[in-house]
């Protein structure tokens, strides 16, 4: 059944603005004229097109205009709580990191690539935002985003430090659109393969005195979430060829309740126990 948005253009823009006004820090980071300027291509027709054509190759396609709309008018048991959770996280990112280099570049795909059905860029942004906040909450200092690795040309997504040494963190969102096998050794082998391939590509010229960390954030669905929950040790960090300064840390997104608040949370083996389904 085709979805048709029953709003005219002015009603849509006003609804999105009312949604944005609930998140003052995110509002201050949005580009001038959002959502009304023509370049953002936000209209009832475009949102209807997007909702009807989201790729079933990427089950979790969502974008900022739809999320802002759901924040006001989404279903109480689905779209709305998801919107509130993700927008609150984006808002907190804007509050904590707005003075850092590269801060706004992280958010850019939310309005520059909102309608790209080939790339679920919302999750790439949300992953980086969530990881930056997780580091912040664990007491790590974040120095900036999209920063150079050593003196080379390659960049990392997040620059932090550990024991006084620079840490170059790069994020990869992994969409698991196939059924995992509920077997520890097979799952571990699969995840190690992904991690080692990414580290080899990213940290070929990593300075010896710096750390290189790949944050692989998995998007499990359906039966895959319990498979990952059943095999927690398979998600332990992966060290690259025994190098102590290169490793991958494995995370996943899950919806649940933490401190009586429903949200979409970035989890690892340290935090999985903190949420209730």
> Mind describing the biggest β-sheet?
7 strands, mixed
Helical amount: 25-40%
- The total count of helices amounts to 10
- The radius of gyration is 19 Å
Segments where pLDDT lies below 50 for 5+ residues?
none
The SS-based structural class is alpha/beta
What does the overall shape look like? Answer: globular
**What's the average pLDDT?**
91
Write the H/E string, N to C.
HHHHHHHHEEEHEHEEE
Strand coverage percent: 15-25%
Summarize the structure.
By secondary structure, the protein is an alpha/beta fold. The chain contains 10 helices and 7 strands.
Descriptive overview:
- The protein has 277 residues and is of the alpha/beta class.
- The chain is built from ten helices and seven strands.
- Strands 1, 2, 3, 4, 5, 6 and 7 form a seven-stranded mixed sheet that branches.
- Helix 9 links the parallel strand 3 and strand 4.
- Helix 1 (9-20) crosses helix 4.
- The protein starts with 8 loop residues before the first helix and ends in a 10-residue tail after the last strand.
Secondary-structure map with pairings?
Elements: H1 9-20, H2 24-29, H3 44-53, H4 64-73, H5 79-97, H6 103-107, H7 109-112, H8 121-137, E1 144-148, E2 155-162, E3 165-175, H9 184-202, E4 211-219, H10 224-230, E5 238-239, E6 246-258, E7 261-267
Parallel strand pairs: 3-4, 4-6
Antiparallel strand pairs: 1-2, 2-3, 5-6, 6-7
Helix pairs in contact: 1-4, 4-5, 5-8
